[in-house]
Design a protein that fits this description.
This protein has about 425 residues and is an alpha/beta fold. The chain has 16 helices and 15 strands. Helix 1 links the parallel strand 1 and strand 2.
Length: about 425
């Protein structure tokens, strides 16, 4: 930047209700005050906002940011966390529920993808993203390398097995068929993730069991509905209007009844809010629509993360939920923690209330087995049992994207969970050609 060096243009995501994002400009100004610096401070977000009643600073819009840096000069400081590879649409979806719903309209989504309307709506049209370069821009740079790594993570749909309706395994299996994981990965994660069919991530090669039930794999939407209908109809479920008519056509289902003849109560899927994790919030919305097509009364309900955990782990008052573990250990003993019946307690690890004596026996044996090959067989059995009973339905594992400059440092070691590992810190070195 040029012009008055005392002018600071601070750009961050402090236009949304997230405590960590609100802190960036606050912390910066605390440092400035401590150093007794005389500056002219402008705070910007994507949109104009005033979250001062939450303790944050008001923000000017990104359009104002573009005008001011041309008019006033000064210095630009960006405050934020993992904002690499975002686009304008993703950012707007964080702060606009209406826009996030529009993205699920096929026509609008394709139009937005082709013409990038939000780029013109929120900026002057010549800046792709406000916080960081897009991956396509980075690929064009000869001194930039992008690492695409698998994570040891699990993002899943959990069921409450303690009460109806999800105490019935047939309903859980039907839901598993209806959930289109490929759609979630391609449309919501923008292809930066992998499908999960077991609780253990596929990147954990020694402990991952590939020989598990892969519900709905390769099916189109009508095929999924027909398969789910067959599962439930065989189990004694009935409809006022079946989702598959007598001629075999798929139609909107209505009035689903349990095997005991009672109308199914309305199901609620709890998710984190979009400003906490848009992927999980949007996944909940899509699962809601897929279940409705079968005639299942369902609502996806975003809930503050702390309240969601209390509802699920504390009070056990829920039907289903979408949560995730961002960093699972390499040792798969978490299978025992997640599903052993002894952990079905207040704030216990067994959030679904799963109770299977056979699983408990194998899990206890695996925890004490010292022979690695024998333990692997036990862990494989545990995965097969879980994917048959489906207390959790694994959905996706997001990819980890990291960009580094190749003209400054080298020696990064790519492993599961990315390049930020002990090996990298031991081997990374400054290039001889780096200017000092």
């Amino acid at each position: 930047m040029s012009g008055n060096n005392k002018i600071i243009h601070f750009l961050s995501a402090s236009d949304r209700i997230n405590y960590g994002d609100l802190l960036f400009p606050i912390i910066f100004m605390k440092v400035v005050e401590k150093q007794n610096c005389d500056i002219e401070f402008y705070n910007y977000g994507i949109v104009k906002s005033d979250l001062s009643h939450f303790g944050g600073y008001p923000t000017y819009s990104y359009r104002k940011f573009q005008r001011n840096i041309k008019k006033l000069g000064g210095n630009v400081i960006v405050g934020g966390g993992e904002v690499l590879f975002v686009d304008w649409g993703s950012l707007l979806a964080f702060i606009s529920y209406t826009y996030s719903k529009l993205l699920f309209n096929m026509i609008f989504s394709n139009f937005e993808k082709k013409f990038n309307l939000t780029k013109y709506l929120l900026s002057d049209g010549n800046v792709l993203v406000p916080f960081a370069p897009n991956r396509t821009e980075l690929k064009a740079k000869q001194n930039i390398k992008i690492f695409y790594s698998k994570k040891s993570a699990l993002y899943f749909l959990g069921f409450n097995l303690r009460t109806l309706p999800f105490s019935d395994v047939n309903l859980r299996q039907a839901v598993a068929v209806l959930v289109d994981k490929e759609f979630i990965i391609s449309r919501i994660l923008q292809a930066y993730g992998t499908r999960m069919d077991s609780i253990v991530p596929s990147g954990n090669r020694f402990w991952f069991c590939s020989d598990v039930s892969r519900y709905g794999e390769g099916m189109d939407r009508n095929g999924r509905i027909k398969k789910a209908y067959h599962i439930l109809h065989t189990a004694g479920y009935a409809w006022e209007v079946p989702p598959v008519d007598e001629s075999g056509r798929v139609v909107p289902g209505k009035g689903i009844r349990m095997p005991d003849g009672q109308l199914m109560k309305k199901i609620t899927i709890l998710t984190p809010p979009a400003d906490y994790d848009p992927h999980r919030a949007m996944s909940g919305m899509m699962i809601q629509e897929w279940l409705k097509a079968l005639g299942i009364p369902v609502l996806s309900r975003p809930m503050a993360f702390g309240a969601l955990l209390d509802q699920v782990k504390g009070r056990h008052e829920f039907d289903a939920f979408i949560l995730g573990y961002g960093r699972l250990s390499m040792d798969p003993d978490y299978l025992r923690n997640f599903f052993h019946s002894a952990n079905d307690k207040h704030r216990g690890w067994n959030m679904s209330g799963y109770n299977n004596p056979e699983f408990d026996r194998i899990a206890e044996k695996s925890a004490s087995e010292m022979n690695q090959e024998l333990r692997q067989k036990l862990i494989f059995k545990m995965q097969k049992i879980i994917m048959a009973d489906i207390p959790y339905l694994p959905i996706y594992n997001p990819a980890l994207l990291e960009a580094v400059r190749t003209d400054t440092f080298s020696g990064w070691v790519e492993t599961l969970d990315g390049i930020g590992n002990t090996w990298s810190f031991c081997l990374v070195k400054q290039n001889d050609t780096t200017s000092r």
